[in-house]
Write a structure and sequence with these properties.
By secondary structure, the chain is of the alpha+beta class. The protein contains three helices and three strands. β2 and β3 form a beta hairpin.
């Protein structure tokens, strides 16, 4: 009788091993999908950080040269009498990684109010819509700034 019971149990170990392998495979596939999602989020964070850095950079240039703030308007500069300021704005614009960023927009509400809006847009090759980073700052224009 013992022999008959042993005969019925044959093959169950193999079946259990195959089921375990199947469950392990699903877990690995799930982890791979999670890793892909995390890499995408990391890449997005990198571009957002880069946009913030670039916006701060142009705002720093404007803050350091408030009398020529119109030179930093992009894509079309306002009235600009300073070749140095115009060159700095062009250098800043050309420092953008063109593979992901499109032409930046720097709008100056009025040189007298010093209200500045910097808009940067980027898109990864896997995305269909553009991402925006907008920075609005106000600079005091005049003597002693």
């Amino acid at each position: 009788m013992k022999r008959r019971f042993m005969h019925k149990q044959q093959g169950y170990l193999l079946l259990e091993a195959l089921i375990s392998l199947l469950l392990f495979s699903f877990a690995i596939i799930g982890l791979a999908g999670l890793e892909a999602t995390l890499l995408g989020s990391s890449s997005q964070s990198k571009f957002r950080y880069q946009a913030a850095y670039l916006a701060e950079n142009i705002e720093g240039l404007m803050q350091g040269d408030p009398s020529n703030i119109g030179c930093y308007a992009l894509p079309t500069p306002g009235t600009c009498n300073s070749s140095t300021a115009s060159g700095l704005a062009t250098t800043w614009k050309n420092s953008m990684p063109s593979a992901v960023f499109i032409a930046p927009t720097v709008t100056i509400d009025s040189p007298s109010t010093g209200l500045v809006t910097v808009v940067l847009q980027w898109k990864r090759s896997t995305e269909t819509s553009w991402n925006n980073y907008t920075s609005i700052s106000s600079y005091k224009i005049g003597a002693g700034t």
